[in-house]
Fold this sequence. Notes:
The structure is a homodimer.
Chain A: E1 9-13, H1 15-25, H2 27-42, E2 49-50, E3 54-57, E4 62-69, E5 73-81, E6 95-101, E7 107-112, H3 114-132, E8 139-143, H4 149-160, E9 164-168, H5 172-181, E10 188-191, H6 195-199, E11 204-207, E12 214-218, E13 228-231, E14 240-242, H7 244-249, E15 251-254, H8 257-263, E16 276-277, H9 278-282, E17 296-299, H10 304-321, E18 325-328, H11 339-345
Parallel strand pairs in A: 1-7, 8-9, 8-11, 9-10, 11-13, 12-14, 13-17, 15-16, 15-17
Antiparallel strand pairs in A: 1-18, 2-4, 3-4, 4-5, 5-6, 6-7
Helix pairs in contact in A: 2-3, 2-4, 2-10, 3-4, 3-10
Amino acid sequence: MKTPSALAMVPFVSVDHMMKLVHSIGLERVLSDLATYIEQDFLRWDLFDKTPRVASHSAEGVIELMPTSDGEVYGFKYVNGHPKNTRDGLQTVTAFGLLANVSNGYPVLLSEMTILTALRTAAMSALAAKHLAPKGATTMAMIGNGAQCEFQATAFKAVCGIDTVRLFDVDAAATKKAARNLADSGLKVISCTSPEEAVAGATIITTCTADKQYATILTDNMVGSGVHINAIGGDCPGKTELHKDILLRSEIFVEYPPQTRIEGEIQQLAPDHPVTELWQVFSGQTKGRKSDRQITLFDSVGFAVEDFSALRYVRDQLTHSGLFLELDMLADPDDPRDLFGMVRRAAPAVAA
Amino acid sequence: MKTPSALAMVPFVSVDHMMKLVHSIGLERVLSDLATYIEQDFLRWDLFDKTPRVASHSAEGVIELMPTSDGEVYGFKYVNGHPKNTRDGLQTVTAFGLLANVSNGYPVLLSEMTILTALRTAAMSALAAKHLAPKGATTMAMIGNGAQCEFQATAFKAVCGIDTVRLFDVDAAATKKAARNLADSGLKVISCTSPEEAVAGATIITTCTADKQYATILTDNMVGSGVHINAIGGDCPGKTELHKDILLRSEIFVEYPPQTRIEGEIQQLAPDHPVTELWQVFSGQTKGRKSDRQITLFDSVGFAVEDFSALRYVRDQLTHSGLFLELDMLADPDDPRDLFGMVRRAAPAVAA
């Protein structure tokens, strides 16, 4: 039987390929590059088909499809969120994604996105902070030391130039794990025993905890003026991390308001509470930080365009990295109307 | 480096695997089995999470995601529809699909669905006809001899017991191709030179043409009483095949009314025109055909539950067929919070 034509093959980037790709390019470089790709796409914001994610909720968690398109390339991510998975030794979040040509609908990339989502989330946070944090910020408090923690710390080093990270988690073992992973990162790592200790002296405060409930990781008295808050963990309905009073003192920046109002910290606020869209800051249409004393807050929930940027980056590495497998995923008969004939001709030869 | 655990691996059924699976089981048997799986799922209709498909339209075509869930298993299909693809030697429709566990969000099957969609569409049509066509129907007219044609003919032989198929297409080459592919099918194949000739003596009329426009493949005078019409080609907004007068004389059966009213033949009718849902017929809640003289019409557009059934069937064959590849698609660190550590430990050893 003839082998499938090139058109029928889809490059697949496995978890192993993704890890090899990160090491071949270098983690900090990958994070910087992803921030650049995301910024490029936010600068052409109007081009994107922006649909809210399509969620299938159950008692245990959620499975979501996040599609978008820039008119030439279509992308989507499959991602689950199951907080209780950790208890069973599973990832809370796993993901994969796909890019396809809009003009003919043929997929051009299938990729793991569990690691890639961690990378793009960190790159997005650091990109927002590059535009919003006080100039010269060198110290970040990192509250919540789970799966996303070290990616955040490394991205802020690579993109924003921070040199010190102050870790805190309610579970000391998580802090120990993060400190160990960051030991040779070039960052000064300080393990703290309370959130108050962690935020002391920090100009950037990142919150990244995983409880699926309304929680108050930061209370109002813990946040002084002149800081940038990077709030990652409030990312689904019913899940927030910050006390409402902090929100009221902050200038709030978001990815895509219709989604953030449902999923982000601002679900605690009135539906018309003023927020600024990040693409407007990146393009210079709106000023980001207006004074050294201001509190800026990035209310991060993760948006389909960021996944699109990340997949675009991975696709651009395929040729020189060679880190992919060709998947025979698309039927490609010689005559497109003869799908049946293709199946028929694949019959094993009958023994004489 | 240690290999990924079983949890991180997703079975992938390629196009080649799918063709081998069809031949190892036998095409007619696969079509009958799929009809059984679809019927089973239609009999538990209420369990399914029924969302309209999520479509991304462009000038050239559409890319769609079709998710559904029965509360235990989640499934979705990616499918494109690009009528002009044939001109470029590409498939009009390509597809792949996925099943995942609702309880933890982990994917359990990735499969090609270009061939599988052709199979399930034919199985669905034959299943509907088994319940609706006049008893003892042996002859089917097949108008439109493109990629779906021979699958339909074979499914109607396997599920409904037809023995004769009368082919017509505006392109004689398509008819020739279909006749050649069906030569050793056990069906009596009659190639016709007009639609009028094709429908003569047929008790079942299948229309399956691909123009993306309002067309009239069947006019009212061509359809006598006591036939079953299986209308496949009217499957997106702006695309229909039957004259409105035929619809007004028929009792109309559909998969899922909210979708069919937008995409099917009945987009020509008032939004409250009475239709019957097939699951009600399968379950015996509603009578299908009420007399020998009646015209029954299955206005087929394809629904997510059918893809779910088809994927469920493929998953059930994995163990004994062995026809799949394990894809390293899900990151699976020993400690779920230590995704970063997993990436870090994958670094290549530094040469001394």
